[in-house]
């Protein structure tokens, strides 16, 4: 039996449960982590009325005509409030971010003034009330929600937290991930290559994919197995105890050396799902053992990559308590530069590059499941339905890689 992509996604997500464990991390370590608390603003933004420009704080009533001269009676830089005051006929030199002096309700920017004598300026434009003043609380009010649980922390979220004086945030604990590559033909980079061998490229690809989803601090252990059923069974039995997520590549197809499914069952994994109607990635395998999820990804590099993007990514987010794991992948739309046809009976994920200038979408390299270099040139994936055809110029949605 072959599963549809949607059914497989649903079954996998149903089997992966959010962790209950949380931890407090500093903002420095929080990028990409999933928040687990709700927070409200305690400090409004801006915190006080301040100048949006380098210029002169004035009373708009007083400075209502171009050509008006004003006496500069003080200077307020950004920083501690000097508690200065202006009277009629006066201005105070201010800089961007400076607190607005008492009596002023506008700022005339420096470029609209000239010095006429020592300590006297002339304005060349009329000041409008409120002009170039950033009023307290106009960006963020006290009490407003700034963080919800289940959100993936991005740089601007961390900046908002810092703006509140917050230096640590509660996030989901990271899962313990194992990347297991399989294959007698594989050699680690750095070792000499014998005829018939190739370097193991899935290991760094899969661990960095995990870290691109959950943050660079995610602990990932690496293992390599020869095509040996006993060794596979014993490693999987060990990993089901020590890991939350196992990403295994290779050995899930139908060849004699593809023993992973059997080994997984022997190691105590159950609820197996195997084969998905998609290209590349058909042999995808998934099974669980109590709290541990095992993904058997096809060994071909592009198949491994695509099945990670389509199934593993959302599962990792769900595991970490994301509120909307299926809605977190990023998409861009663009127009196809050429006709694309899928003559097969499975949806085809085509690797594409989006031209930064024209927005046109171009396939990259041969669309084979081993074509790793073409994958490295791509920005994303376009899915073409089984037996589907998309003409040049069609607007397509690109899942960013
Ligand atoms: P398999 O799924 O084990 O039948 O592998 C399918 C293809 O992917 C074979 O050509 C393998 O050599 C290749 N392959 C499997 N694992 C890796 C890996 N870790 N790095 C690079 N290529 C791999
Ligand atoms: Mg293999």
Radius of gyration, Cα only, in angstroms?
30 Å
Mind summarizing the main beta sheet?
Answer: 6 strands, mixed
Quaternary state of the chains: single chain
Average residue pLDDT? 97
Strand proportion: 25-35%
Structural class: alpha+beta
Global shape: elongated
Bound heterogens, unique: adenosine monophosphate, magnesium ion
Explain the layout of strands and helices.
Elements (H helix, E strand, L loop, with lengths): L4 H11 L6 E5 L12 E2 L9 E2 L3 E4 L10 E8 L13 E5 L11 E4 L3 E5 L2 E4 L9 E2 L10 E3 L7 H9 L4 E5 L4 E6 L3 E2 L10 E2 L2 H13 L5 E6 L3 H14 L2 E5 L10 H7 L3 E5 L10 E5 L2 E6 L3 H19 L11 E6 L3 E2 L6 E7 L5 E4 L8 H5 L3 E5 L4 E2 L4 E6 L1
Parallel strand pairs: 5-6, 13-16, 13-17, 14-15, 17-20, 21-24
Antiparallel strand pairs: 1-12, 2-11, 3-10, 4-6, 4-7, 5-9, 8-9, 18-19, 19-20, 21-27, 22-26, 23-24, 23-25, 25-27
Helix pairs in contact: 1-6, 3-6, 4-5
Outline the structure in words:
By secondary structure, this protein is an alpha+beta fold. The chain has seven helices and 27 strands. The chain has helices at residues 5-15, 155-163, 202-214, 229-242, 260-266, 301-319, 372-376; strands spanning 22-26, 39-40, 50-51, 55-58, 69-76, 90-94, 106-109, 113-117, 120-123, 133-134, 145-147, 168-172, 177-182, 186-187, 198-199, 220-225, 245-249, 270-274, 285-289, 292-297, 331-336, 340-341, 348-354, 360-363, 380-384, 389-390, 395-400. The protein has a six-stranded mixed beta sheet with strand order 7-4-6-5-9-8, with no helix packed on it. It has a six-stranded mixed beta sheet with strand order 16-13-17-20-19-18, sandwiched between helices. Strands 21-24-23-25-27 form a five-stranded mixed beta barrel. Helix 1 packs across helix 6 and helix 4 crosses helix 5. The longest helix is centred in the C-terminal third of the chain and has 19 residues, at 301-319. It is elongated, with a radius of gyration of 30 Å. It starts with a helix and ends with a strand. The mean pLDDT is 97. Adenosine monophosphate binds next to helix 3.
